[in-house]
Write a structure and sequence with these properties.
The complex is a heterodimer. Chain A has 3 helices and 3 strands, in the order E-E-H-E-H-H. By secondary structure, chain A is an alpha+beta fold. In chain B, 41% of the residues are buried. Classes of the chains: A alpha+beta, B mainly alpha. Chain A binds chain B through residues 1-3, 8, 30-32, 36-37, 40-41, 43-45, 48, and chain B through 42-46, 48-49, 52, 143, 146-147, 150, 154.
Chain lengths: 109, 261
């Protein structure tokens, strides 16, 4: 590896689609000096076994990153914003317990 | 006229076998030479790419040896691994070791263009199994050529790379022209449409494609001496470098003849 430093160190993130219509899923990255070689290397690393229908190759420095915990993980309880935020676990358990205690009656409820 | 009109003769079958053997050996030997970069290519990504391309060529050789074996009633593995070095029929271009990276790229570029010209013609062969295989190989070779074109231009972009490419190219033109060395009973193959055009026509088309690229990149093209050099022995001349490689690639097969795995 005579090319250890310099422009060859540019990193390109590779996204893969397995079949038409599937989402593009991040697969990993390759190191290459420019877009053209990045494309070649992405093809070798993530497509040479015919496992890909489409590849996206994106320069890592072209990606806008958001990782601010104040924006992504605010300190207040946000569970009510999730589909599972309304917890019915305990209600279910109670219902099961009632059904278990009085078999037969559960079906009438 | 097509093959369907004229049944094959012993002479035409022998000529077709020679054509297939030459192409198969080209792919086989260049695949082995370039696989020598595995582990030491200029960067990790290129290492994987070069190894993968070399593997593709061995795969093409395998398909061609199988086609040949069908034609002659031989065994593809026996053809690939069972011959003495002097019985190989690759072009003299493949007699050289991998040398440095610029040499590998220069040799490979000349070869990839020649292969593209050859496959374009063979995809029109009246021998259907060959036409089908050539069409399949073209799809993969398209990528090989893109990869090599990228590298040739990259190396030619600075003085050091240009000098190294030039040094390699100067010694390679006559051996590259050997890819289009005439084969015995070629006229018969052309007449039957198995080889849609004479080698001389393919050679001219290859030169039309490579020469302008060399001029564009400031690299040496073929000299008049290169172009007039005799290439009748272009597919029979062998070197000690090739004999060494032959020892390497036949080592496993020779360790137990006829073994299956």
């Amino acid at each position: 590896m005579t090319d250890g430093g310099g422009p060859a160190d540019r990193v390109w993130e590779v996204f893969r689609q397995e079949a038409e219509g599937d989402p593009m899923i991040h697969s990993g990255n390759v190191r290459a000096p420019d877009e053209e070689l990045a494309m070649h290397y992405a093809r070798e690393f993530y497509g040479r076994r015919q496992e890909s229908n489409r590849l996206w190759v994106v320069a890592r420095d072209a990606i806008t990153e958001l990782d601010d915990p104040d924006l992504l993980k605010p300190p207040f309880d946000r569970s009510f914003k999730r589909p599972g935020g309304y917890l019915i676990k305990h209600k279910l358990e109670a219902a099961k317990a009632r059904a278990g205690a009085q078999p037969g009656e559960a079906e009438d409820e | 006229m097509s093959v369907a009109d004229v049944p094959p003769t012993e002479a035409s079958r022998e000529a077709l076998a020679q054509l297939l053997l030459g192409i198969a050996d080209d792919e086989f030997v260049i695949g082995f030479w370039d696989s020598e970069w595995t582990g030491i290519a200029p960067m990790l990504e290129e290492d994987v790419a070069t190894s993968s391309i070399s593997q593709d060529e061995i795969g093409h050789a395998r398909a061609l040896y199988e086609l040949l074996a069908e034609l002659t009633g031989d065994d593809a593995d026996a053809i690939a691994f069972g011959r003495e070095p002097d019985a190989y029929r690759h072009a003299a271009l493949m007699n050289h070791p991998r040398t440095d990276w610029a040499f590998t790229i220069a040799r490979r570029y000349l070869y990839e263009i020649a292969d593209a010209v050859r496959l374009e013609a063979l995809a029109r062969s009246s021998y259907a199994p060959l036409a089908q295989l050539a069409a399949k190989m073209r799809r993969e070779e398209r990528y090989h050529l893109m990869h090599l074109d990228t590298w040739l231009r990259r190396l030619a972009a600075d003085d050091n790379g240009t000098e190294r490419l030039a040094a390699a190219l100067r010694g390679l033109w006559t051996d590259a022209l050997a890819i289009f060395a005439p084969i015995a009973d070629e006229a018969l193959l052309v007449q039957r449409g198995e080889l849609p055009e004479p080698m001389a026509a393919l050679r001219a088309r290859w030169l039309e494609q490579v020469t302008p690229v060399m001029a564009e990149l400031g690299l040496p093209g073929p000299t008049p001496e290169d172009l007039s050099a005799g290439i009748d022995d272009g597919r029979t001349r062998r070197t000690d470098d090739f004999r060494w490689l032959h020892g390497e690639f036949t080592m496993v097969a020779a360790s137990e003849r006829g073994a299956t795995w």
